[in-house]
Design goal:
Structural class: alpha/beta
Shape: globular
Mean pLDDT: 84
CATH superfamily of the largest domain: Medium-chain alcohol dehydrogenases, catalytic domain
Distance between the termini: 6 Å
CATH class of the largest domain: Alpha Beta
Number of helices: 14
Radius of gyration: 22 Å
C-alpha cells in the first residue's frame, strides 16, 4: 500500500459522476485487502486482482457530472458502492433483472465501462481513499443535511439493516456477537425495528488481524482496562445487556438470564441451551463465535452470519437435530418489502434520535494512512470503533464550521471529532490517493 499521485478520473458515459469524498471508512474487508489476507478458496473466484484504490464506505460531494438525470455538482451524497451489470456495460444477468443486484452474477467480470465488484475494488472507478472517484448516479443517495460522521456509516448501516431483515421475527430474544461498528449497528437496527426485543451482546475484542496471544502471554494493558464506559455506549444503542467472557461463560450466563436449561454433551464440548435465544447475529464469524452462536439458539432458531467467516468446521449434527436456520448476509440491495436498503439507511441516518453518533472515533488525513490502519487493526480493544479518512470535502466543511453559525444552525461535527481531526492533521496536505 502506498500514497501517490494518480490522474483525476473523468466521467466517460451518461449518468457517471466524479465524487469528492468527505469521509471514507476503514472496514474489515479493507483490512483484509491491505494485509493481503487470502479469501477462503471457494471465494477466490470472485477476487479482483488488479491494483485498486480502496474505500467503499463514503459520504461525499458530486464534483463533476456527465449527462445525469438528477445528480449535479455540489450535491452531497451517500454512495451504494456495488457495481452491477448495467454499470459495467454488460447485459443484465438473471439476478440483476430480478432486482437482486447485490447478488449480481457478473461480479468478477469487466465490461466496456467498468470492472470489479464495487467502488473501492475497481481499477477504473477508484475508491474513497482518494480525492476523487467515479460512481453512477444510480448508486447515489442524497445526503441532504446528514452530518458527515453519520453519512460515512451509510454502507455499514445498510449491511446491518440487511442482516436484521433476514430475520422474520419469531420470538422475543436475540443475541449479537461482536463489539465493533457492525455489531453496534446491528444492535441499533434491531432496537429500531423491535422496540420490545430482549438483546444480549456478547462483547469480544479479539481481532482477526492481530496475532493471537499464546497461552502464557500476558494480555496487553488496553485489554485489561475498565470497559464499563464501552458497555454503557452499547447499551445506549439498544442492548439490553452486554456480557464478556469465554464461550462457556457466555452460554451459562445467558441460560441463567433467560431461564434456559444447559445441556452438557458427553464428549466434553461446549454446552447447548434448551430454550435459548430466537436469533443470533454473528458479527465476528470466528470459529469461537460460530461455535457459541449455534449453541445459544433455541430449537428452530436462526443464525445470521453478518461477517465473512474463514473455512471452519461447523456442528452440522446440532444444526440438523435442532432444525436451525443459517443464513449469510453479505451486502444490501432491495429488501422483500420493495424498499432499497440504502433508502432505509438514509431515513434512519437523517433521524437524530437514531443513536449512532459515537461510532466514528478516529479521523485521519490520507498521508497518515499507516497510523490509520494501525488504529483500525487495534480495534475496540484500543478504543477504536470506526476509523475514517478525511477527504477534500471534509476540509471544506471544517473551514465552514469554523465560521460563526446562524442562531438556528447546529454545528454538525461533535467536538470530539474536531479535536481528533486537529490532533491527526499535521501540516499542510498534499493531493494524494491511497492505492
Amino acid at each position: 500500500m502506498q500514497v501517490r499521485q494518480v490522474p483525476v478520473p473523468v466521467p466517460q458515459a451518461p449518468g457517471w459522476v466524479l465524487v469528492t469524498p468527505a469521509l471514507a471508512g476503514i472496514c474489515a474487508g479493507d483490512l483484509n485487502l491491505v494485509s493481503g489476507a487470502a479469501a477462503p478458496s471457494v471465494l477466490s473466484a470472485y477476487e479482483h486482482r488488479a491494483p485498486v484504490i480502496p474505500g467503499h464506505e463514503v459520504v461525499g460531494v458530486v464534483a463533476g457530472a456527465s449527462s445525469t438525470r438528477w445528480a449535479k455538482e455540489g450535491d452531497r451524497v451517500l454512495v451504494e458502492p456495488t457495481l452491477r451489470c448495467t454499470h459495467k456495460g454488460l447485459p443484465e444477468c438473471a439476478r440483476c433483472r430480478a432486482g437482486d443486484t447485490h447478488l449480481c452474477e457478473n461480479r468478477d467480470r469487466a465490461g466496456a465501462l467498468c470492472s470489479g465488484p464495487s467502488i473501492g475494488n475497481s481499477e477504473r472507478a477508484g475508491g474513497g481513499w482518494s480525492e476523487g472517484f467515479l460512481a453512477h448516479e444510480d448508486m447515489l443517495v442524497p445526503a441532504d443535511t446528514i452530518p458527515d460522521q453519520r453519512g460515512v456509516l451509510a454502507e455499514p448501516l445498510a449491511s446491518a439493516v440487511h442482516a436484521v431483515l433476514h430475520w422474520h421475527r419469531r420470538g422475543d430474544r436475540a443475541a449479537v456477537l461482536g463489539a465493533g461498528a457492525q455489531a453496534r449497528l446491528v444492535v441499533a437496527s434491531l432496537r429500531r425495528l423491535h422496540p420490545d426485543l430482549d438483546i444480549t451482546v456478547l462483547y469480544d475484542t479479539r481481532n482477526p488481524w492481530r496475532p493471537r496471544l499464546g497461552p502464557r502471554a500476558r494480555r496487553p494493558a488496553h485489554m485489561q482496562g475498565d470497559v464499563s464506559a464501552d458497555f454503557a455506549a452499547i447499551r445506549s444503542m439498544g442492548a439490553s445487556r452486554v456480557l464478556r467472557g469465554s464461550g462457556e461463560e457466555h452460554l451459562r450466563r445467558v441460560a441463567e438470564i433467560l431461564g434456559a436449561r444447559v445441556l452438557a454433551p458427553q464428549n466434553g464440548a461446549l454446552p447447548v441451551l434448551d430454550g435459548g435465544v430466537d436469533a443470533v447475529f454473528d458479527c465476528h464469524a470466528s470459529a469461537e463465535s460460530l461455535e457459541t452462536g449455534v449453541r445459544l439458539l433455541r430449537a428452530g432458531g436462526m443464525l445470521v452470519l453478518a461477517a465473512r467467516p474463514s473455512l471452519q468446521l461447523v456442528e452440522w449434527p446440532l444444526i440438523w437435530a435442532r432444525e436451525l436456520t443459517v443464513v449469510g448476509s453479505a451486502l444490501y440491495g432491495r429488501e422483500s418489502s420493495g424498499h432499497r436498503t440504502f433508502a432505509i439507511a438514509r431515513e434512519w441516518l437523517a433521524d437524530t434520535a437514531f443513536p449512532i453518533d459515537s461510532l466514528v472515533t478516529h479521523r485521519f488525513p490520507l498521508e497518515d494512512h499507516e497510523a490509520a490502519i494501525s488504529v483500525a487493526v487495534a480495534g475496540v480493544s484500543a478504543g477504536a470503533v470506526k476509523v475514517v479518512f478525511e477527504g477534500p470535502a471534509a476540509e471544506m466543511r471544517v473551514r465552514m464550521d469554523a465560521e460563526p453559525a446562524a442562531a438556528d444552525q447546529a454545528i454538525d461535527v461533535p467536538l470530539l471529532l474536531h479535536a481528533t481531526s486537529a490532533h491527526t492533521r499535521t501540516g499542510a496536505r498534499t493531493a494524494s490517493n491511497g492505492s
